[in-house]
Amino acid sequence: MLKLEQGRPADTSGRLEKEIRVYDFLDKLGVIYDRVDHEALMTMEACEEADRVLEATICKNLFLCTANKKEFYLLMIVGDKRLVTKDVSKKLGTSRLSFANESYMEEYLDITPGSVSVLGLMNDVENHVQLVIDEDVLKGEYVGCHPCINTSSLRVRTADLMEKIIPAMHHEAKIIRI
């Protein structure tokens, strides 16, 4: 049975440095967050139990790029929505998007497949990646995301995400309707 905990883990031994950096970042901002630890979750289906415990809007976080690999996007959409890349490309006014190679994900966000998270933008100090959020993600009080590793999931207030976290990462969110 998964258990909801408040804030960072008391014992961070065995945790990856990039996960600890997320907790340091959120704590420095004064953001209150809840956490649930679990086995590695690689799919939306595997996240279902953690989703129930978090009681937050759970997002698919997709790392996309243009065919020429010059523009990169982190797209947050509600977990049960279907992605049509042609439609998203049109809304963004860009060439057809596809899933970006994991080497770019690691280089720009310090994240591996299965762990993609808006919080990875804190590692994108040169702003290689544009954040795009489906407007339905913003309708709930809370948003769920990984702390750059898929063995924990966090719940943060949507208002804190938009008003504190994203600005502190020096990124802006482009809001679209999917």
TrEMBL record:
SUPFAM superfamilies: YbaK/ProRS associated domain. It comes from Roseburia faecis. GO terms for molecular function: aminoacyl-tRNA deacylase activity; aminoacyl-tRNA ligase activity. The keyword Ligase applies. It comes from the Bacteria. The keyword Ligase applies. Gene3D superfamilies: YbaK/aminoacyl-tRNA synthetase-associated domain. Residues 38-163 form the YbaK/aminoacyl-tRNA synthetase-associated domain. It holds the Pfam family tRNA_edit. InterPro entries: ProX/PRXD1, YbaK/aa-tRNA-synt-asso_dom_sf, YbaK/aa-tRNA-synth-assoc-dom. This is Bi-functional aminoacyl-tRNA synthetase. Keywords: Aminoacyl-tRNA synthetase, Ligase. PANTHER family: PROLYL-TRNA SYNTHETASE ASSOCIATED DOMAIN-CONTAINING PROTEIN 1-RELATED, YBAK DOMAIN-CONTAINING PROTEIN. Belongs to the PRORSD1 family.
